[in-house]
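Quick start: read one record
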Amino acid sequence: MSDEYQFSDSRALSAPFAEQLSRQPPDGALAWLSAILATQAPMLRSSNAILLAYTGNPAAIAWLEANVGSPVAGQWGVAAALATNR
């Protein structure tokens, strides 16, 4: 995975992520997004984590818990809530 999206926020990631969702199953889209999030700084990763909910993949919750950190971060809670309500 290139570092092309290392400094991208969710607005910049939304179009390529939508393309991934349309071309891949949820597992593939989750893998694509989590590889990008893994290259990002913690604060950016936390704010972009909301995109994980759109994969519809239950493994997104496990990824959030392992890689995003404290549920005190606002976007973490929103992403977790969206993912569990799918």
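The CA atoms of residues 16 and 33 lie 10 Å apart.
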